[in-house]
Design a protein that fits this description.
There is one protein chain. The chain is built from five helices and five strands; from the N terminus they run E-H-H-E-H-E-H-E-E-H. It is an alpha+beta fold. The chain has a single domain, classed as Aminopeptidase, CATH 3.40.630. The chain has a five-stranded mixed sheet. A hairpin with an 8-residue loop joins strand 4 and strand 5. Helix 1 crosses helix 2. It is globular and about 45 Å long.
C-alpha cells in the first residue's frame, strides 16, 4: 500500500479488532520479537532517509505482496507503475518534489524495485547483539525521487559512498 505519511487513514473498527487479536494467536514472545524487528527496521529507514535531500512530500510503500503463483508475471510491476502514475507523477507534474521510500527484507524483491528506478540507500540487517540473539534478518531501504525539474536527480551510489566515509 502506497501512502502519503500525512494522509494515512485510521483503521476501521473491524481492522483494529483483527490487529488486536494477533498477539493472542501468536503469543506474547512472537509479538515481542516482531515489535523488536519492526522497531530496528524503522530506525534504519529513518536514519537512511535523514541523510537524503529534503523533499516536499515523503511517501512510504508499506507493503506489497504478490501471490506466489503469480510472481514473475508482472503483477507487482504493473501495480506499482499504476500507483506511481496515479498518485506520484501527478504531484511531480505539478512541480512538487516527492520521495518514495520502501524497505524489503527479501533480496529477490530488489530486482522489481530497481527496475522501477528505486535505489538502495541502506543495506543492513538485524543480527545478534540484542535479547533476541538468534534473529538474523537482512534489510534494504530503497528510495526514488520524483520531481518536475530536470536537475532533480538522486545518485544513490554517490550517497552510499559519502555515507560510508
Amino acid at each position: 500500500m502506497l501512502m502519503n505519511k500525512t494522509e494515512a487513514p485510521p483503521p476501521k473498527p473491524e481492522e483494529l479488532a483483527e490487529l488486536l487479536a494477533i498477539p493472542q494467536r501468536f503469543g506474547d514472545d512472537v509479538m515481542e520479537r516482531w515489535k523488536f524487528a519492526v522497531g530496528v527496521f524503522s530506525q534504519q529507514a529513518t536514519e537512511a532517509a535523514s541523510r537524503l535531500d529534503k523533499v516536499e512530500c515523503l511517501w512510504n510503500l508499506q507493503m506489497l505482496a504478490v501471490r506466489e503463483d503469480r510472481r514473475g508475471c508482472g503483477v507487482g510491476t504493473g501495480v506499482l507503475r499504476q500507483l506511481i502514475a496515479d498518485r506520484i507523477e501527478a504531484l511531480a507534474g505539478a512541480g512538487k518534489t516527492i520521495r518514495v521510500t520502501l524497505m524489503s527484507q527479501m533480496e529477490q524483491n530488489l530486482t522489481l524495485y530497481k527496475r522501477l528506478g528505486f535505489d538502495v540507500v541502506f543495506e543492513g540487517k538485524i543480527a545478534g547483539g540484542s535479547e533476541f540473539s538468534d534473529i538474523n534478518i537482512p534489510n534494504w531501504v530503497m528510495s526514488k525521487l520524483f520531481c518536475g525539474a530536470p536537475a532533480c536527480v538522486q545518485n544513490s551510489e554517490e550517497f552510499l559512498h559519502q555515507s560510508s566515509m
